[in-house]
Amino acid sequence: MLLELPKSRLDVRSTEEMTIDELCFLRETLETSETIRRYVSEHRPRRGGRVFGLVSLLLLYLLMECRKTTYRGVIRNLSDHDCICLGLIDENGRPRRPSYATLNGFVNRVLAPMAEAIGEEITEAVLKTSLRTYTLDSTPLQASRYNKDAEYSTHYEIRMDKAHILMADGYPLYMLQSDGNANDSPFAAPLIGRLPRARPSHGKMEFHADGAYDSFLTYSRVYVSTGAVLRCNQGTDAGVHGVDEAAIRNEYAGMWKRDGYDPYRKNDLDFMLRFLCKNGREELVGKHLRDRSMRMNEAEEKEAVDERAGGRKNVRHVCETMHRAMKRWVDLSIFRLVKRTKEARIRCRFLCLQLLSLLFRGYVSS
Question: In whole angstroms, how far apart are CA 106 and each of 53, 71, 141, 229, 242?
Fold first, then answer.
């Protein structure tokens, strides 16, 4: 069963102005999650014992992250009305607050292992909608200067980790975490490789990425997975490789002994590119696609000029805007997080971002 998206969405994209009643718009969405249903059915309370609902505790944790407080702080500041809205009540319908240890145990032992599965359901539901623009970029996860587990980045001049996030029209889909000095390009393939499972087949797609993902293999893998030509922020001294359609056709013709070769499809560029990628010519295909991307960027420089910047229109504005918004919604830093729980907590916080992106009005109109 596909997870249902919220029927009501908020016009204001701010967690500071969001009320408990508005946060509970996500209850119906979470109750349709197959992951949550399966966990509840397999972990029923023994001997008639009463436990707090999983959805209620998840909403309480989401409230804690939005308010950027601690387990003790969010429990202490809960009013009776808040408990009733969140579903934290006893058998008589009276407000019942969980202990901070209960919430802490829920996040580390229950939510962390299933956060990625719930996120997969959200991504699958989002990909069923009309999405056009996909963006891939990394954002820093700042650490304390005394944290020896995090590497020092000479670019940002802080100790940090990185979060590589794949988004579609402002919806965060997938995330991978890496060291602060890790190269961005190797993380493109595992993120892109997760798209075909629920990739939409309607409409024209655009795929944009930061210049750090500018590599031949990334171009070819984006094309195989989405059918789109990757658009990167390329340097002013970027060179053209001269791999045109004729070069692709000649390479295709020389592989006539390979399985799947069809001489009648030598004019089908899409078929030839996918055939070459399948038979170990990903780098050649990447060079061809990079040349096409550079020609598209040059055409945009002549036609689409942003009046405010006085240059080429910034097609990644949704990605940059969302990264700033996400850091306002939820604390994405890794301050005060020990090494053994750091990755689990970041997964939980990314799930919070996915839920909030469903709740708020989108940055791109459908």
Answer: 11, 11, 24, 43, 56
Which residue has tokens 């997080």?
A: 337
Residue 364: count other Cβ atoms within 10 Å of its Cβ. Answer: 13
Q: DSSP letters along 36-71, please?
A: HHHHHHHSPPGGG-----HHHHHHHHHHHHHHT--H
Q: What does the alpha-carbon distance between residue 45 and residue 32 come to, in Å, rounded to a whole number?
A: 21
pTM of the model: 0.86
Residues 158-196 have pLDDT tens digits of: 999 999 999 988 889 999 999 999 999 889 989 988 875
> Do residues 3 and 122 make contact, with C-beta atoms less than 8 angstroms apart?
yes
C-alpha–C-alpha distance, residues 331 and 335, integer Å? 9
Tell me the residue type at 210: D
CA-based torsion, 103, 109, 29, 353: positive or negative: positive
Angle at 131 between CA 227 and CA 214, to 5 degrees: 50
Phi, psi of 10 (to 5 degrees): -90, 140
What are the pLDDT digits (tens) for 257-285?
899 899 888 889 999 999 999 999 999 99
Exposure pattern of 115-134 as b/e (b: 16+ CB <10 Å)?
Answer: beebbbbbbebbbeeebebb
Within 8 A by CB and 6+ apart from 115, the residues are 344, 347, 348, 350, 351
Q: Residue 295's CB: how many other CB atoms inside 10 A?
A: 12
